[in-house]
Each structure stands twice: as C-alpha cells, then as structure tokens.
Amino acid sequence: MSELTYTEIDATVLNTLTPPKRAYWLTVAALAAGILIGLSCWIYQIFVGIGVGGQNNPVGWGTYLINFVFWVGIAHSGTLISAILYLFRAGWRNPIARAAETMTVFAVCTAGLFPLIHLGRVWLVYYMLPYPNQRYLWPNFQSPLVFDLVAISTYLTVSSLFWFTGMLPDLAAARDRAAGWRRRFYKILSLGWTGEHEQWRHYTRGYLFFAALATPLVISVHSVVSWDFALAVVPGWHSTIFAPYFVAGAIHSGLAMVLTLMIPLRAIFDYKRIITDDVLENVAKTIIFTGLIVGFAYATEYFIAWYSHNEIEIESFRWRALGDYSLEFWIMVVCNSLVPLLFFFKKYRRSTPWLFGISILINVGMWFERFVIIVGGPAHDFIPHAWGLYTPSAVEMGIMLGTFCLFFFLFLLFVKHLPSVSMTEMKETLEKGSAHGS
Amino acid sequence: MKRRTFLKLAGIGSLSLATGCDSRPANTLYSLVKAPDDMVTGEPSWYATTCRECPAGCGVVAKVREGRVVKLEGNPLHPINKGKLCMRGQAALQGIYNPDRLTTPLLKTARGSEPVSHAKAAEMLKARTAAAAAKGENRVHLLTETVGEVLADLFTESLARWGSGPPLVFEPFAYESTKTAHKMVFGIDGLPSYRMERADVVVSLGADFLETWLSPVEYARKFKAMHAYGKGGKGLFFHISPCQSLTAANADLWLPPVPGGEGAVGCALLRMVLAEGRGDHLPADFREALIQTVAPFTPEKTARTAGVPPETLGKIGKAVLAASAPLVLGGSAAGGGDAVLQADLAAALLNCVLDPNRSLIDFDARHRVETAARRADILRFFADLKEGPAGVLLLNSVNPVYAMPGAGDVRDALAREDLFVVAFSNFMDETTQLADLVVPVQPPLESWDEYGGKTGLLSTLQPAMGAMVPAPHVGDLLLGTAFGAENRPAPDYASCLAKRLMADHPMATDRDRLETFRAGGRLEDRPEEKTGKTAEPPADLTPEPYLLNILAKASEAPEEAITFTALPSIRFFDGRGANRPWLCEVPDPLTKIAWQTPILLHPETMKKAGLRQEDVITATTRWGTLEAPVYESDGIRPGTAAMAIGQGHAGFGRYADGMGLNPFHLLSPLADTVAGGPNHGGEPVEIRKTGRGLPLAHTDGSRIQHGRTIALSISLTDLVHGEHPEKHGLAMHEFPLVLPLPEGYSPHRDIYPPHEHAGYRWAMTVDLDRCIGCGACAAACYAENNIGVVGPERILEGREMSWLMIQRYLDPDRPEKVAFLPMLCQHCDNAPCESVCPVYAPHHSKEGLNNQIYNRCIGTRFCSQNCPYKVRRFNWFDWEWPAPMNLQLNPEVTVRSKGVMEKCSFCVQRIKDAHGQAKNEGRAIRDGEVVPACVQTCPTGAFVFGNLMDPQSRVRRMVEDVRAYQILGYINTKPAVIYLKKVVQEI
Hints:
The complex is a heterodimer. Chain A is built from 16 helices and no strands. Chain A is mainly alpha-helical. Chain A has one domain: Formate dehydrogenase/DMSO reductase fold (Up-down Bundle). Chain A is globular and about 70 Å long. The two termini of chain A are 17 Å apart.
C-alpha cells in the first residue's frame, strides 16, 4: 500500500462524494419504491391482522423473526471488523472497517423493525418498556424477549456512537473540501473538529474505548438473540450450544455480506488500490474459519440429539434433514459449510467473481439456517397431532422486500454522502507493517 | 307483564341493539328501569325444554341472559340424556341465531320469491286448502318431521277437516329394517329402548349408537356404564361393519366384513349359540327351523362369504356365550337394504335366544322415531302425488329433496303447477326452494310444545326467549286454517297443548301444568328405569318361510368392483345440521377433516387405483356421479368406499352451500322390497382419477403419536394383575406423576420455589377409558367461550381456534386401533408460556390457573411457540359473528380481538361465579360446584374437575388411580390436567 500517498487517499475517498449521477438517483428511487411496498404491506397487516402472513399454529414465527435474526447476524461482522480486529491490530481491516461498521448500524436498524412488524398488536409495544405506571405493571425480566430489547437497543446505541466517533476526522476532511450546503452539512456533523493534537489524543483514546466496549457486545448480543430460542423448551431450540453457534453464524453471514457490499463498492468507486485483493482474501480466510465452526455446530446438534436418547429430539433432527423442509436444510448445509471450503484454494480466494458468488450463497444459506431453526423447531415438536407446515405469504414477501430495500437504500445514501472508507485509518497504515496506534 | 310478553320484548330489544354491532364495545349501556321479577341484569335464568335437533328428544336447559339464550346444557333430571348433550344439541343455538334464517313468508311468483305478510300467508293457506278440500277427498297432504303426540294429533285432525288422511312422518333414518325384524320376532313394529348399561357383552351388527342411531347421548352414557373400567373389569364390545364409524372405533374389536356381510356374521353367531343349546325356551318347531336355516353359516363358509377371519368369529361367539347379559344390536341408522334387514333379524333373534326374559330390551319405552313412515311409503306418496289429482302439499321441516337419493319423483311432484306446496321452514333449503309458499314457523326454542323421545315420557318445550323473528307456531297456523272459529278445539296451540296435557296426565291445576313446563316435563316417570321382564316372546313365533328366507340369504362374495356406502355423520345427522358453523368447524372425529366431505378409501384400494390422498376422483354409480377428494383411511375394508352424509347442500345458507358433498347422489332411489327401507350402502362404484387435487382441511399433523407419552393405554390384564411401581426417573417413560402442588416440588428437578395456592388449586382429570371422541366437549367450548369460527381456508392454513380439540391417534402397527385424547390447556404449575412472555400476559393465578390477560397481550406468540401442548390459539384476524349470530355470544366471556393470544381458561367465568356464590353464603366452594362447559356436556362423564387441594375432592381421588399420568410430564411442566390411561382388552 505504500504506493498511495495521503493526498491520493483523500482524493479517492472524497471524490466519491461528488454530486451523484442520474443512475444513482434512479436506483435510490427504485429502492424507495421497494420500501413503500413494504410499508404498505405492513400497514395492511396492521389493519387486517397478522393472519395476512403465513404464520399459523404451530409455526407462530415466520419470516419476520427469520429476517430479524438474519439482520442481527449481518450486523455482527461490522463490529467484529471495526472493533475486535482493531484491538488485534489487524491492519487489513482498515479499508473496510467504515463500510462494515455502517453495514452494522443499518442492519441493526433493519433488524429492529422486525420485532415490531411481527407483533400482533404493535400499537401496544410500549408495554415492553419498564415505564412507571399506576398499576405497577412491569415487564417480565425472565422473558428472553425483554433481554432482546435491552441487547438490541444497547447494540444500536454503541455501534452508532462508535461509527460516528470514528468518522469525525473524515467528516472534517470532507468539510474542508466541500462548498455550499454540503460544507454546512459536514460542518455540523464534524462537531468542530480542527485536528489539533488534543483532539487527536481524545479521539484515539475514545475510539479504543468504544472498540473495547463494542467487543463484548459482538458476543453478547447474538448470544441473547440465540436465547430467544435456547431458553424455550422446543426441540431443536432448547440447546446449550446455541449462543456460540449463533455468534459464529452471525459473523459468518456478516463477513459474507461485507464481501457482497465491498466488491461492487470497489468496482464502482475505483477503490481497488484501497480495498485490495489482499483485504478480500483475508475476509475469505476468516470465512473458512467461521464456516468450519458453523459446520461443527450442525454436526454437534446431531450428535447431541443421538447422544441424548431423547426420542423427540431425535425425531426432530431426523425430520429436519429428511422431512418437509429437507431442501431448506440441505441449502443451509451446502451453502454455509461446504461452499466456503472452496476458499482453501487460493484461486477462489483471489478471484472477485468467485468471492462475490460464494458470498451471495453464504447469505442465502444463512437465511435458510434461520428458516430451518425458527420454522423447523415448532413445526415438528412435542405433540404430533399439532404438527403443521408454514409457507410465507405474499404480504410477508412484500415486507421482506421492503426491508431489504431499506437496507440498501440507506447504504446507497451513505456511500455518496459520507466517506465510505476511513481516510484516517488508511493513512495510519501507509507504512508497511504499521497499524493503528502503533 | 306476562313473562312471555316480556321475553318477546327483550328478544326484539336485544335484536335491535345487535344491528350494526361489531366486536368494539357499545358506547352506551342502558339498564332496565323496571325489570321483571325473574330477570336480574348479569344473572342468568334457566328454562327447561326439549332438544329437537334429532328425534331422540333430549332434555335441555337453556341459559338466558338479558332475554336471549346464550347456551344450551342438558337437563340433569331428564331420563334420556341425564344432563348431557351431543355437539348437535350444543349447536341448536345456531339454528335460532342463524343469519340465513327466514324472516318473512315468501311467495313464489313469476318474478321470483316475494315476501308476504304472515296474515296474507295464512289467508292464502286457508283459501288453497279449502279449495282443494272442496274438490274431493285426500287433496291435502302433509309430510312432517317426527313431532310430539299433541302436534301429530292436531295434524291428523286438521287433515281430517280437509277430508284427507293422516300425515306422513318423513325421517331419512327411519329404521325400517329394525322395525320389520321386531315385528317378525317380537310382534311389535317398533323400536325398543336397550338397557345397554346392564349388559356385559354388546355386539353391534352395524348400529352406530354413539353417533346417530336412535338416541346417541343416551346410548353413549349407557355404553360407558357397561364398558368403562370400574370394579376391576369392564364389558366387551364388538362392532361389525365394513367401515369404521366412531362407534366401531370404540369397540374392543372391530370386524369389517364385506358390505352387507353383517347379516351373515349375525347368522353365524346365531348358529353358534343355537349349537350350544341356547334358546330352548323357544317353540320347538321354530327352534328347529332356525337351526336348519342357519346351519350353512359355518365359520368357514361365513369367512368366505362375509370376508371375515373364522377365528375372530369364533372368539366373538365364545364371548357372547360366556356373557351373563349379552346384547346384540342390529344394523346402522342409515339402512342398507336387504342385507341390513338380515342383520336386524339376526340381532332380534339372537336377543330372543340369549335373553329369554328380554331383560335388556324394553318395549315399554319405545323411541318416538318409530312413528316415521317407511321409505317405500314415502316413495309411493311422492309417486302418487306426481300422478294424482291437484291439491295442496304441506311440508313441515323436512328436506326430502336433499335426503332422498335420486329425488326425481319428489322434484317432479313439487314442480307440479296444480299442486300448491307450502313449506313450514325457517331456512331455505333444497326442498323449500321448490315450494310455492314458504312460511317461517316458531323454532322449538321459541315455542310451547311437547315432545317425548320415548313412549310414556312427557317432555315439554317452552319458549326460552322471545321470538327472534315474528312467526306463528305451526300448530297455530293449522288451527287458524283448518278449523272455523266455531269448531276450533282451542283458540291457539298453547291452550290446545295445555288442555291435552291436563287430560292425559294427572294435573289438577294450571299451576301443576306450569310446574310441569318449568321442569321440562314429567321427568320423574322414567320409563327406562322400570325393571323386570316386559313381555314374553309371542307364542305364535312360527317358522315362517318368509322370515327364514331373509335369514338364509348368503351375502355375496366380494366382487372386483368397489362398493360405496354412505355413513350417517355425528355432526350433521341427516344433513339438517350442515348450516350450523360449529358443526362444520369441529372436525369429523375420525378423519379430523372439517367443512369438507372426502371419500374414504383403504390404502390398498388406493394403491390399486394409483391414487394418493387429496387426489380428486370421479365416483360413478348407476345413479350418479360425484367428484370427491380421496382420504386414505385404515378404518375401511379394502374394496369399499364411504362418504359421510350431511353436506353438499345447494341453497341451504352460507355455511352449508358449496361445503362438502352429498353422497345420496350416488345411491339407489329405490327402497328395499321387504322392509321398505332405503339403500344407503352396497352400491358398486367406479372410481376414476381426474388428475386434479383438493387439499383437505384436516386438523391433525400426524396420525400416530411416535411412541410419546401422549394418549396412553394399559391392558386390562396388566392393570388388574400387573405391578405398578412408582417411577423415579427423569426421562420420558420413567418420569413420575408430579402434582401441580407444593408437594410436587423437588430440589432435584426444580429451580424455582413451588407456587403457593390460596385454598384452591383447580385441576381436571380426563379418563381416556371413558372418552369416545364424540367432540361434544369441543362444541360446548365454542358455545361457552365465544371461540371464532374460521372456515375451511383458515383451517387449511392451520388457524383453527378450538380451545379444546379431540386428538385422534392410530396405533402405528394396527391402525384400526384408535385412541382419542381431549387436549386443552394443561394449566401447568411450571408453565413454559408464562416465563417467555415479555409483558406477563399469561399469568399464574393464586388458584393455579394459567390466566391469559387479553388486554395485556401484545401478540409476540412466544407463549404459543413454547407451549409443548400447542393449545394456545392466536387471533390472526377479527373473527366474524354475522348478525344475529352475535346475540349468542356469552356476555361473561370477552370477545377477543385480532393480535391477541387465547386458550382454555378452565371456564374461569364459572369459577368466579362459584366464588361469588360461595362468598355470599359465607362458605367455601363445594366439590363439584364448578363445572366447565366441556365437563358439563360430556355424555360419558370422562372429565372430572375440582380442587386438588381438597383431599376429599373427586378429582383428587381420581389422581390416586394407578392409571393417572401427565402428558409429556418429563418436561416438568406439572400439568393440572391429569389423564387416566385407556384400558384395552385383547380378544
């Protein structure tokens, strides 16, 4: 990377903030239309009832919760890259840290919508908050859903602050180059950053603390999400492996999403010199690791089902692989555990099309993993008479489309309006072998 | 103000309030300024009357709140049903509040049906009948359902006034062959009561007495009196029929012969008992002739002709011979031609031989349905009507166009220009549509009347509420039209009834009469309770060749063709229940299919025809064609096809139209030659694939229980002689029974401390040995708890709302063995639903109830996901009660809105009621004082409800039974619903 200069970095990154072309706005408009479709589906559902979705008895949770877990999972890699790898001084994370952290914030926002969409009476959601009231009614702190509320809101708060704090020097740089309303915009956002020594000292300390604060959240938030299932008695959910299994899965999907986002980003913005093939290769190597953990978790579940001698558990897992949702199950296994093994070969790690294709497959596989768990558990649990199947409805699909559009809509706005690569951190790594703070 | 007037006003008042009502509460509440004495707002009043949903005539008490009936329960003092009701009885309310109920008389004109006033209709009726009567004799005809004696006599008198013969009683199930057999053997052309409770072995040659046969609630009770485990043993029950009805599913042994083979089996049994020297009280020549006649029915030959294993036949014979009080019942309620006559005759002769004193058959208490005319007479009636002179035909609540196969003559007769057809009916149906004048009449719950389901029983009807729709009683109509003001026997039907009752029964004063009506009749005269022998066999029991020929008939060997049979349905009876949404929604007990009528085929038959379940086939017989979805059933003999009777209506209102199919389309319109009964079975049918499919709205996810501790059974031998060691393990099959009480706490199993209860811990036991799977409890639950009816599409989506459902499990190795299990909220002590709700909507009460606080629920559905029993129901939409159906809603139970979870509450409203009562009287709630709706209606008394903390309570004593277990107890939920294993016997 040594061939880059400070100016070149500034130029490459800040050039992305030039007023966008028509194609950009058309894409943004298309995504906005998608959001509107999702929104109208949601409004329709509020007025008519949750029944417009495909959920039923026994499968009370459908795509809404699948997407919730999916997006929370996506959110994890952002923090992993920006915080954990920061603490580990892994310099290769610098070019993608900003975009990954942004992905985290937007993914948590998207994920946070789903518990609301999923509620039968969303207008009463404030019952979940511990607000003082004359009837002394308090939320049930035994309920994993209350854990969830706490965990997700904490995560959103910390990751947004971390994201914003990290961006301050870059915003100031953008302010210095911008004119007109843009200048005023960046001026407000950069909170009066002047670049004096004292500011840098506070900034680097603060960034480090945030990273330290965010790191346990990577583990805890998805562990808490996994307890939504693990604390239930449903066979296929009630398992002690769930917390590490979910965290690994989350990082797996998040890394894949990073690839999915970075590859087009560097193509469009000519970031090839910043987000180099080496960076992508490092992500791919990490994916091998997470893929192996996820595969190990799948195998462990089967081992425990067999080892437990619990007929209900055994039947539940037999049915998972061979029953009505076997296609979904095998999509999950192949995409999440087998396909990533291709990255053992350097050829695939360094080929952008392969990286992109495999990252999409992992995203798909991870979505189906949540489907297999969330739908497959209750669909085939204790009472055979009550067994039933679930198919998502058009309204659910509409809402899903809307939320995917929302995520990409926000991300697209971000890349053209905020510096999508951390110039500060790039400059820190210009010297070979150097990383943050070293 | 007279009570009647008041009820009328109240009814109209609530009707007008109801218009435009929805689930949102009204903004204004009005209270009565001057309430009548017997009405306290918020307090129910009860009116005893008689159920008229089928000819059995059970006693009911109607619960009335603020002038409208909200629930029907059995009258505990009534000798027929002793406080119990079947699901049809529960759903009688939906006839009253049906949104398709006719509101005015309708006259058919060139422009279609036009509403006319009741006065105009009566005037027209009077003019037409008078004109017809003037033209000659027998010009006015009346076809009626089974009615009480008083009304039947009024019909006869009225017709006599018009110079016409007596009315004809039309019942689709008229037991022609049974009556014929009884005439031949006992000399009585009638239908006796059976003292089944005193028998120790019962053999049914097709009689489906748990569903429709004669008096299902009564016989369900008597059956379990003889067949439920108690005093170290239980009776034996054998059922012989090609298709497994609910009755057959409850048999210790179900033997499927070829269709029509029941008679041969009966004859084989007769041969066996005669060979053992039974029946020596019979005239010697008769006995000899009988032995000669049944001689060919050796086990081997019967095995060949009827297609049953000879060793099984031998076993049944042995059991019958070893019995001290064996009882044999004849053919199915839906007749089946000559073959059923043979079965009925064999049954009558077997009883005659085995029970010389006739201690189990009571001809003093005969079922009222015996007044129904034979199908042959009905056919002749319509044939004559088609050809005969012009006149007037009156139809009283009958639907022959639907219920008679190939109703060509009926249609032709009704279509005659010069025959003025008047239908007294509250609904448009297939027959009513063809009538020239339709006059709505008072339905039973709104009228004064009398209907004794059995001879010698006075059972009365009184208006339980004001008329929903102003309509005359059919008796009033006839009194007004057939008689002049001067020769009228009474000014109105009510006084006619009063006069007659006071004449026939010892009643000194009007007050006595009113007391009789208040009590629902003279119920202390229990005709069935009379003991001792009734009548000697007629001395003239001679070896008539006529009789012997019927008996000698050998059933045909199984052909290549598939044989079609129509089965009477527990839900719709003969089809009259098809417009009651509860009956459509509560699934069929055996197929678990709601709203639809599949054709049942054995897996072998399906394999041969290359069919799969849910394929649509065309079934073609000589008489017609139907397109029906296939249901794969192990409860049917290979080579046989069956369909339930009752659905497939055209023009019978929104709940019946387009739902299911009418199997009568495939059956012969002809009556059999000897008994004159319809042929509801044994029709060769051709089956062809259409290539299309139809998803079946079934509520079961799996037919077997995968070896889990759900519906358990124990063999009688193991129960009596086996060891019953206490269990101590933690795994599914070793987990002990853990009561939902502090004593159930164990530091080895529990994290949280035990719940302390304040005086009461409500619990229920369900004796699976008593449960027959009839579904009355499920229907009662819909009625009591305002449960939404969702319809077939939603059931296909898996969104039925039943709080209590009967789960049906088949034995994986012997799928003809069926276990029924009522599943409802288990009110766990350690409830998985409670801990996962973020807002405490499921709440553990001080009395151990798992309450669902609807107002608090935000609809996360986590509770339902975490419920191991999957008994929680989510309101996916706002369910509809089209007016005036909403008037039936129980005001004591919240109507839940969309987005809210709900489930069985153990009828908490009834518990609160008992609390109030006990508090007023300064005492504790007595054992048996709280009776949830399901417990109340169960015909066999399978449920016991009470306080587990009271060591003397019945429920507590039931829990001590070695059969007691908890479903999947090993999850350590500590359910408060404790099941008692079914006791099975291997024959």
